[in-house]
Amino acid sequence: MKFYFTFGCGQKFEGGYHIIEAETRDTARNEMNRKFGSKWSMQYRSAEEAGVAMFGLRKIVLNENQERGLGELRDLLALDHGLRDTEIEWLEIFDMAWDLTPRIINIIDEIYRRVM
C-alpha cells in the first residue's frame, strides 16, 4: 500500500510530499527515516488525506543515489570503524546539500573501497 509523507515549514522539502510503498505503516515510516532521517513532518494513507491537491504539494522524487538515504551513509561510515552517531553527526550537512548527494556517495564509496 502507498503511504504519503509530507514536509513541514522550514524543512528542506517544505511544501512537498514523498510516497513510500510498504506493507505496513511502521515499515513505511522506517523507510522514510532511512531516506530522510527525521527531516519530514507527517504520514498519511492517501493523497487526499495528505492534502496534496488542496495545498498544491509537489512530489519529491529521489534519484538512485539519494534513495540510499542518510541512514545508509551513516551505516557505511560506521561499518568496521566503530564510529558512534555522535562522531558522524557532521553528516547532517548532507541533508543541507542534497543536490551534491550523488557526488558525496561516490566519494564515500571510494573511501570505503580504499579502507576495506
Q: Rough shape?
A: elongated
Q: What's the β-strand tally?
A: 4
How much beta, percentage-wise?
5-15%
Spatial order of strands in the largest sheet = 3-1-2-4
**How many discrete domains?**
2
The description of the largest β-sheet is:
4 strands, mixed
Using only C-alpha atoms, the radius of gyration works out to: 15 Å
Low-pLDDT runs: 86-90
Proportion of residues in helical segments: 40-55%
Structural class: alpha+beta
Our measurement of the CA-to-CA distance between the termini, rounded to an integer number of angstroms, reads: 39 Å
Tally of individual helices: 7
Give the helices and strands as they follow along the chain: EEHEHHEHHHH
The average pLDDT value, as a whole number, equals 77
Account of the 3D structure:
The chain is α+β, with helices and mostly antiparallel strands and 116 residues long. It has 2 domains: 2-59, no CATH class; 64-115, no CATH class. It has 7 helices and 4 strands. The chain has helices spanning 25-36, 47-50, 52-55, 64-67, 69-78, 92-96, 101-115, and strands spanning 2-6, 16-21, 42-44, 58-59. A 4-stranded mixed β-sheet has the order 3-1-2-4. The N and C termini lie far apart (39 Å).
